[in-house]
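Hey, resending since the last one bounced:
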Amino acid sequence: MALPKSKYLKPFKNIFLLILVVFVVWMLFFDANSWLIHHELNTEIEDLENEKSYYKKEIEKDKKDLKKISTDEGLEKFAREAYYMKRDNEEIYIIEYEDSLKTTDND
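The structure tokens again:
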């Protein structure tokens, strides 16, 4: 039984072209160093680099905060704002605005 002559099958009669197509498909999808794996690794590298730059910025911000707290005035300011500490002869009033309060509506 003879195969029908087709203009689409004619290029696949060339053994070199057939080997090239098989090689390209193998390298793109099935090999351990395939394009898909490289693409996944490159996106993971980009994500990690973005995370690295974020943490570097956070470290710089924390260093600035530590520098501020290392002085007596900075430490006192931090204690007053964060922990509501006061001196013996002082009174502290905490003013909360309506829009900053957490409320639950029970209708």
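The mean pLDDT is 84.

Sorry for the duplicate.
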